Amino acid sequence: MDPITELLAGMLEEVRPHDAGETASYIPQLRDADPAPLAFAVAGPRGRVRTVGDDEVAFTIQSISKPFVLALALEQRGRDGVLEKVGVEPSGEPFNAISLEPGTGRPANPLLNAGAIATTALIEGADVDTRTGKIVDALSAFAGRSLWIDEKVYASESETGHRNRALAHLLRSHDVIAGAVDVAVETYFRQCSVLVTVRDLAVMGATLAFGGMNPVTGRRVVSEPVARDVLAIMASCGMYDYSGEWLLRVGLPAKSGVSGGLLAVAPSQFGVAAFSPRLDAHGNSVRASALVEAVADRFGMHLLELHESLGEPAVSVETVEDGRLVRLGGELGFTGSERVVAVLRELAAGLAEGTVVTVDASELGRANPGALVALRTEFQTMPDSFVLREESG
Ligand code: GLU
Predict the structure, then answer these.
(1) Mean pLDDT, rounded, of the chain
(2) Longest dimension (CA), the chain
(3) Domain locations in the chain?
(4) Active site residue: 188, 259, 265, 272, which one?
(5) Where does 3-298 sit in CATH, by number?
(6) Side-by-side strand order, sheet with 254-256
(7) Among 49, 52, 66, 183, which one carries the catalytic annotation?
(8) Model-level pTM?
(9) Is 285 assigned a catalytic role?
(10) Could you tell me which CATH number the domain at 314-389 has?
(11) Fold: same for 3-298 and 314-389
């Protein structure tokens, strides 16, 4: 076992004794689910997925489908097209609340049931099968394998889904959803019934973590701005009416579901997922939450924590035949451009006149436009022997 997998296995054993909480009770398949399984997975940048525990157990994705269907809607309709129908404000209310904006009837956000049904209704298609097909294809592209639906769970969701149907009728009455209510709501029930494992969820999360590019298949699933929008909404609304406290304590965009799954994203680093069926009073899995909290804590993943690599970009100065070569690497942002400017000024002051200084910016992983403008402006004040190379070769 490699050291990271060993660490994950250790965390799994630490949370195993927690037996608080209850399985969801609104359908027999969830109420009677074995509460014992416990699994944990992390998917990193090069597509390596580490899993520990009951990683072969499949469960229905439930609410964790919501951010991914949102991604599909954003990709198809654009941000404004989605915002016209659904808000992005945390409601502080339970997942099935009737949280509609007075006047417009817009649901508070896409991760509540009302908002999710409105989002699902934005996926076009003549009937439930066509729409479901598009959604399952999108979820599969995020997971990097073909997913399918648990028909028994779907039948139960549909049989018992009176409140969701009522929400959908309310949305229809406000013209938030167009067309047949049944098509929207049955598509939503089918999307909730897609079967996944923790591995799938970790890869789905990693795809969001790496700007919409699936690190396992190497396929772009959604654009970078769409992935960022989805993560922003997960950060503020992903954990039901515990979202604020989750952001405070754990600090990662996340989404949980009533079957006991939980997915969280450390942008640019990894997707992490955990599964354990017993839920707390907010509807979040007790042991899965503890696992994600532990991994975030131990790897210093809180989004608002200091990240020194951002403040200290890679700048190296080499002596070469005709002068100096300044290589820039990593990400050039605000603090990075400040540092590069300081290095250049030091060189300009200390070197003999006419010494050639080549600044190679062609290997930057990412250069933010503001930082590049600052660098180019600085170059205008530098001696002619200073050369900025932005393209490789
Ligand atoms: N199928 C569930 C519902 O709509 C999903 C809820 C959830 O996972 O939060 O009631």
Answers:
(1) 94
(2) 82
(3) 3-298, 314-389
(4) 188
(5) 3.40.710.10
(6) 49-53, 39-43, 270-275, 261-266, 254-256
(7) 66
(8) 0.93
(9) no
(10) 3.30.750.24
(11) no
